Amino acid sequence: MAQVPLSMNPVQFSCSICLELLKDPVTIPCGHSYCMSCLTDYWDCQPICSCPQCRATFSPRPTLGRNTLLAEMLQSLGAVKLSEGPSAPPLYEDHGFEHATFDVSSVRPERTDGERLLGETRRYLAQQIEESESELQQLKQTLRSFSRLAKAAVKDSSKIFSELQEFVERRRVEMKELIRAQEKAEVTRAENQLQRLEQQISELRRRDAELEKLSHSQDQHRITQSMCQSYCSPVSAGAASSLVVSPHVSFGPVRKAISDLKEQLQSLYHREFPNITSAVKTVNILQMEKANKALEAGDSAHIPSLDSRTDLLQCEKHQSDLNQNSVTSQSSSTKHDSAFLFLCRLLFAVFGPVHSTQGAFPD
User: Fold this and answer.
1) What residues are paired with 357 via a beta bridge?
2) 96: alpha, beta or left? (left if phi > 0; alpha if psi -120 to 50)
3) What is the pLDDT of residue 363?
4) Are residues 53 and 79 in the same domain?
5) Shared-domain flag, residues 318 and 340
6) Residues contacting residue 337 through CB under 8 Å, at least 6 positions apart
7) Are residues 59 and 150 in the same domain?
8) What's the pLDDT at 226?
9) Each residue of 134-161: pLDDT tens digit?
10) Domain assignment of residue 177, yes or no
11) What is the rounded distance in angstroms from the CA atom of residue 358 to the CA atom of residue 355?
12) What does the pLDDT read at residue 302?
């Protein structure tokens, strides 16, 4: 009997990097599969390990392991040699003679179940496409909003630092005015004292000159009177004698106080800047918690074993029942049975279990 053709799209099992059928396939935590050599070369050229399709990032770099299940599927796909040719004539076509040993309609439920499986898978894919498109639109909108928020944050931070710069500039002007005022006050006080000292010296020299003249006089009464006047009205030197001139005047303490203030500001900045950096890094568009959990669980969590899938067991059980019901035609339908079972395994391995309210197969 003719072999039932089975058509599969090879694009579904091709590497998105080299666009060829997968060679030594590996599956990364996000669920996508690539050639091991292609993905290794791609990650070696990238600063961050990420999926070329969904852009999910992984840190640390995952250890790549060969997906044995998918490799066997691809090997079986090549062995079966799926064709795109026209469908073979139905097995139940009238051949002009009676079928005495088997029922020609025994393969009809198998084809119906295969079509139902494909229909359920297409509906599942349509749902996934709809959800992905919704996520795509939401991500685009979030990106636009994020760009606006980032621009506003840059503007606000620039404004705050400008205000801080203006504050420091005002303090600099105040400090300059304070030093100039102190300089003016001290210079004025010193100049006044200098003027008083000069006047005092002039007065003392004048009196000394008068006493020198009296020293040549013979009139004792006049000498006594002049001496009394000199001692009774002495030059006020108390203020001058109470002043102590600083021999090492300096603005060193002022400079030290300003330097201490600068160090305190720098210390405050270095202490608080990590908090600012942490606050900036918490603003994320994508949350990678699921990807990280998948990374910890390992690659096997994304492509479970076929033996653990209830739907696949149902598929094999249903195939076994069909074989028992058509014992007499087993030799003529073996290739078709293997192709159908391979299709079931391939769909489950790539797309996962298909959930239906009616079940994947009838009881």
Assistant:
1) none
2) left
3) 43
4) yes
5) yes
6) 110, 319, 322, 323
7) no
8) 66
9) 989 988 999 999 899 999 999 999 999 9
10) yes
11) 9
12) 40
